[in-house]
Structures are given as structure tokens and as C-alpha cells.
Amino acid sequence: MANQRVPRIFNPARRRAIRQRAARLSAADPAASYILADMVEDTQERLAFMRLAPTRSLVIGDRHGEMAAHLSAEGSEVVSVDPADFDEEAPLPWGAFDFIASLATLDTVNDLPGALIHLRNGLAPGGVLIASLLGAGSAPALRSAMLAADADRPAARMHPMVDRRGGADLLQRSGFARQVVDSRSLDVRYGSMDALVNDMRAQGMTNALVSSPPPLGRAARETARQHFISQADDAGRVTETFEILTLTGWKS
């Protein structure tokens, strides 16, 4: 029987360039990293709630080093890797870590089940993975604006994303002994679509798809801006929602 090939949805080179750009932009304006900051804070709270004090941790995507610093202060030996240089679809040393944190990176890997299997294999028995990623309910205001701009010929401008049920299925398929999947919404208010897009660039959330859509022309771009602001409240601000999906898995 022929080997099943993993579909190529995301372009690894484009993904790497997007993350390198995000590192530069967020260094100039750390406030633009609000999604990553939320994920870091939430992961720290989960560790405290579980009373988990890992001795050796792997942290993926900790752009500003806050998660690694927290774990180090708690006595953990930390390996921190930059997702621009780290291949999540490659095997990890077997059983090397008792805790792995993945922050805002798994939503753009081609082989997500395979990546989760590698993360599970990298855990020691009893080890825990906490993976935070953008979920399927993210950026509805921007999605609506893009559809309006493309009119009757919509292009693939936004990434496909995982929902809670899909996340639970992925953890089960990946062989985790126990799984918990939950999501929460982070609402951010914007006065323009351009401000939102700039923040998304600074957070590495722009298009990394293999099939690059045609750029919006001037008229279509203006249509998108007008449609976006038409969703504004009385104060002239549009509330954009980011769904943060958290996958927690335990290795037996």
C-alpha cells in the first residue's frame, strides 16, 4: 500500500520568515505581543494549579523569554527554542523532558498529529505537555472584511484552524494517556483594520499558506477597510476576537 503523504498546507520558508519578522517587530514594541503574553501567563497559572514543578523543561515559542525565566526561577533546567529555527515535525530526544510548553506555534505545522507524537515522545513518563495555539473562532471581524473584499471570488487568505473537538481528537490520536482541551476568548478593540494587521504581523500571525492568494488591489483593500470599520461600536472601535485553544496532555 502506498505511503500516505502529509498535505502541504503551510510553507515552511514563509513560516520561518514570518516568525523572524515578528521577532524584530515585537522587540521594538513588546506590547504588540499580547496573545503570546496571555498564553505565557495562562501556562504559568496552569502549572501552579497542577502543583507541577518540572526538573527539565522544553519551551517552544517563548519569544521574550518570560516562560523560560519563570521555570528557571522555579528550579527547572530549561531548553528554550526559537520556532523560526526549530522543526516541530522532527523527532525529539526520547523522554528528555518532564514538561513541554508550546506557545503559538502548532497552528502552522503541516503534520500536526506527527508534531504532537514527537512532543509526547520527548516527554518522560508522567510528563506533561501544555500547547497553546490560535483556535478556529479567531479573527471573525478580519475574516468578514476579507470576504467582503473578495466579493464573489473568495481567496484563501486566512489559515485553517483547530477547534476544541479537533484538539481532543488530536491528543487522543497522538497517544496521550490523559487529555484536557479548553478554549477562551481574548477580545481586543481596534480603530482600523490596518492597526489590527500591523499587530498580527508583529505576532507572526500573517499568511504562511503554500498557495499564496493574489494581493488585494487598491479598491478591494479599501472595501475591506470600510467593511471592517462598519462593525465598529459607538466609540468607533471594532472588537476583534482571538480564540486561544489549550491542549494539555499527560504521558503514561
From TrEMBL:
Coiled coil spans: none
InterPro entries (UniProt xref): Malonyl-ACP_OMT, SAM-dependent_MTases_sf
Keyword Protein transport: no
Domain of life: Bacteria
Molecular function terms from GO: methyltransferase activity
Signal peptide segment: none
An example Gene Ontology biological process: methylation
Pfam families found in the cross-reference section: Methyltransf_23
Keywords: Methyltransferase, Transferase
Protein name from the UniProt record: Methyltransferase domain-containing protein
